[in-house]
Design a protein that fits this description.
The complex is a heterodimer. Helices cover about 0% and strands about 55% of the residues of chain A. Chain A has no helices and eleven strands. Classes of the chains: A mainly beta, B mainly beta. Chains A and B meet through strand 4, strand 5, strand 9 and strand 10 of A and strand 4, strand 5 and strand 10 of B.
């Protein structure tokens, strides 16, 4: 069964906080991993791909643990504009499975 | 920067009517996808399309649904006889060689 699970949320954090999102996937044959953000009633937008060695893009750091089938996203120094739903996406062949998302609200 | 476009942005239709949702993917991408998202729920895969044919489809994509790429640029999703439960946002996406998906802004379908 191809499932992707995420922290249920919502996360309400003050500006400047560090917040971490977790995601687990059930299919060990998964090939590629991504984090997307989705603003209310908008399309998902690619935030970053997740590589086995981990990767960082400014305030965002993604980690992948294939043995535990676990993906994480860390946001440092959160901004008001980071408020969105964060979607974990796992690729199996030509299929992409989306997690339910974790909603983040960054408060002034 | 190239982007995926979709039309219309909002479609209201009566139950039992046919609808066609249109997408123009990014031109040098090879895989195209349709997803739907019912309000408040997660994004669900419907179908993937490669080399002018369906490469994979989900259980949701039953005989009421069809896709085609009639002219090499437009990518359409047809729902033959809409049901109330087809009301959702429908997103088109195209994929680059790194499997990164680029989504269109979506079509909000309301079936009354």
């Amino acid at each position: 069964r191809k499932e992707v699970e995420q922290d249920p949320g919502p996360f309400n954090v003050p500006e400047g906080a560090t917040v971490a999102f977790n995601c687990t996937y059930s299919n060990s044959a998964s090939q590629s991993f991504f984090w997307y953000r989705q603003d209310c009633r908008k399309e998902p937008k690619l935030l970053m791909s997740v590589y086995s060695s981990g990767n960082e893009d400014g305030r965002f750091t993604a980690q992948l643990n294939r043995a535990s089938q676990y993906i994480s996203l860390l946001i440092r120094d959160s901004k008001l504009s980071d408020s969105a739903t964060y979607l974990c996406v796992v690729n199996y062949g030509q299929n992409f499975v989306f997690g339910p998302g974790t909603r983040l609200s960054v408060l002034p | 920067e190239p982007e995926v476009t979709q039309t219309p942005s909002h479609q209201v239709t009566q139950m039992g009517q046919e609808v066609i949702l249109r997408c123009v993917p990014i031109s040098n991408h090879l895989y195209f996808y349709w997803y739907r998202q019912i309000l408040g729920q997660k994004v669900e895969f419907l179908v993937s399309f490669y080399n002018n044919e369906i490469s994979e489809k989900s259980e949701i994509f039953d005989d009421q649904f069809s896709v085609e790429r009639p002219d090499g640029s437009n990518f359409t999703l047809k729902i033959r006889s809409t049901k109330l439960e087809d009301s959702a946002m429908y997103f088109c996406a195209s994929i680059n060689s790194s499997y990164e998906q680029y989504f269109g802004p979506g079509t909000r379908l309301t079936v009354t």
